[in-house]
Write a structure and sequence with these properties.
Layout lengths: L3 E7 L2 H11 L7 E4 L10 E5 L4 H10 L4 E9 L6 E5 L4
C-alpha cells in the first residue's frame, strides 16, 4: 500500500479533460478526482498519478499544450486520516 501519491491541478476544466484524453493513450496511470481544498479552488478537478512519473507528466503536458496550475505530493500520516500536502512545482 502506498502512503503517498501526486496530483496535478488545472486552471480550467478544459485542460483537465484534455489531460485525461491525452493520458489515456499512455502507459501512465492517471485518475481524475475532485481537487482537495487545501491545494486549490480553481477548476475543481485534479488528476492523481504515481509520483515517480512527474517529469513524464510535465513533459507530455508541455508537448500537448496542457496548462497546469501546480503539482503536489500528498502523504497520508500513519494511523490517522490526516493528509500532508507538498507543492512540487512553482507558479
Amino acid at each position: 500500500m502506498k502512503d503517498y501519491y501526486c496530483v496535478v491541478s488545472f486552471h480550467s476544466t478544459y485542460h483537465a479533460l484534455r489531460f485525461e484524453d491525452v493520458f489515456k493513450n499512455t502507459d501512465i496511470n492517471i485518475k481524475l478526482m475532485p481537487i482537495p481544498r487545501q491545494i486549490s479552488s480553481s477548476c475543481g478537478t485534479a488528476a492523481q498519478f504515481p509520483c515517480d512519473r512527474k517529469e513524464d507528466i510535465l513533459l507530455i503536458c508541455k508537448q500537448n499544450d496542457i496548462q497546469i496550475d501546480s503539482v503536489h505530493k500528498i502523504e497520508k500520516e500513519s494511523n490517522t486520516s490526516f493528509l500532508k500536502f507538498f507543492k512540487l512545482t512553482k507558479k
